[in-house]
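Need a sequence for this fold. Nothing fancy.
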């Protein structure tokens, strides 16, 4: 539809608005020979009881290793970066390299990519993360929407309210609810 305002000599083109298309999101397996570390932090209140979660899976979506635990009182961003650090430690302890790292916090992904945060409180974690990344050698880091990070989110929420000890697991020792979350994670969800 076109409308012409002859007094101003302006011609406007109006487009019929369509309903926006949904963006479908899901967890995607890493390429052959790589593993994927998904991490997430949870905070009940943006300074409150917090938890961390991280899971490492192979190219077939199989659980290799994972963890969840409480970190007492923290902000959302502190919980996120502590989850990343715990996940990197787990990768190192298991001797993994060629890792794709994904998280749903754009602030953390951007800060780690440039090894500096605008929030000075988060910068204290940079040396530890930098050292972990140096040990791993080959890695990629990227953002994933929350819908593609469901298992890590589930684990972080399991950790909220727990003590400072983390619970570690592998596929054989993973609880059925965690395995079920992994199956759901591979399904498509609207964003």
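Here you go.
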């Amino acid at each position: 539809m076109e409308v012409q305002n002859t007094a101003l000599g302006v011609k406007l083109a109006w487009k019929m608005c369509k309903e926006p298309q949904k963006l479908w999101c899901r967890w995607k397996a890493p390429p052959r020979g790589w593993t994927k570390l998904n991490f997430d932090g949870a905070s009940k209140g943006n300074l409150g009881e917090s938890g961390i979660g991280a899971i490492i899976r192979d190219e077939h979506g199989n659980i290799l290793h994972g963890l969840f635990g409480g970190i007492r009182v923290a902000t959302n961003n502190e919980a996120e970066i502590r989850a990343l650090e715990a996940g990197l430690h787990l990768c190192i302890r298991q001797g993994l390299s060629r890792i794709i790292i994904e998280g749903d916090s754009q602030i953390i992904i951007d800060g780690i990519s440039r090894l500096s945060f605008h929030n000075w409180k988060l910068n204290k974690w940079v040396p530890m993360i930098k050292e972990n990344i140096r040990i791993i050698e080959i890695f990629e880091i990227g953002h994933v929407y929350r819908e593609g990070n469901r298992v890590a989110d589930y684990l972080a929420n399991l950790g909220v309210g727990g003590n400072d000890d983390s619970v570690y697991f592998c596929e054989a020792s993973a609880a059925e609810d965690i395995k079920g979350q992994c199956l759901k994670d591979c399904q498509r969800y609207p964003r």
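For context: The two ends are 31 Å apart (CA to CA).
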